[in-house]
Amino acid sequence: MTRFVLKRIAVMPLLLLGVVTIAFVISRLLPANPIAAIVGQRNLGNEAIVAAAERKWGLDQPLIVQYFNYIGNLFRGDLGTSFVTKSPVLSDLADRLPATLELALMALVIGAVGGVILGVVSASRKDKFADHLSRLFALVGSSLPIFWTGLLFLFVFYAQLGIAPSPGRLSSRVVPPPHVTGFYTVDALVAGNPALFWDAFSHLLLPAFIMGWGLMGTISRLVRASMLDELGADYVRTVRAKGVSEGQLMRGHVLRNSLTPVVTVLGFAFGALLMGAVLVETIFSWNGIGSYAVEATRALDYPAINGVSLLGGAVFLLANLATDVTYAVVDPRVRLV
Length: 337
Fold this sequence. Notes:
By secondary structure, the protein is mainly α. Helices cover about 75% and strands about 0% of the residues. It is globular.
């Protein structure tokens, strides 16, 4: 396994170079001028200011020169400076990443736990009302567009019923906790402030549920199918013949064996949740990587676009590696070569 992991890690820089190259080329092909984000709309007519800005940011150089300059800086750990924030992209990503991580992890927990519960209910009550209801709930979560679900839930639970908090990570007059991890829920607990924790947690629930609902549907269908297959296995009849209760059979044998396929889903799902939070973060005013990517794209912020693309590629590669390793640990029959 160690050899497999080292081989995969050795290939990662080449794959990330390909990701960055594609992002670099595509961003330059977009029919817009990033100089407006640098100098502002009022100064676009001033040729001296525009020329000075192009020289400062290297935009007056040939495209191939810009590319190799960027790659050279990348190997030195410099992702460039954002046209919009005027801060290093690496700092911007470090500031925004904890918000998206907190949201994605919560969505992963909701999707995984909820999906397993729904799958168990469906399998243990096959073709009964509970089975049909849980399958319908999973189907709706997997089918509805996330932007539509987010707007609908925000309108119903916040605007109409008033039982959900306002968009954002905290209430408007609440001061964020001292920075430790960047996770407001964790930092509030570290600061010993339960009121702040509940405020952050309540703001986290609705967007995390919307992100995790689709994953819940996928996992529930996977668990249901796996459990039904396991229930038809010979060892199940043997266990029942020994007088083991149905609950013990489900928990100790069938469910445990049925969870192995779920492992393959979770790694990819986490990567998708982490880098696919654009719509949810936009709807819920969540100041994370997704909203940063939207701002960068609107302003044609080349360094920020490339930085987000690099981060996304790294997340998916690491998630893929973690999934393969975990699957091999859970199922000894799988050999990594």
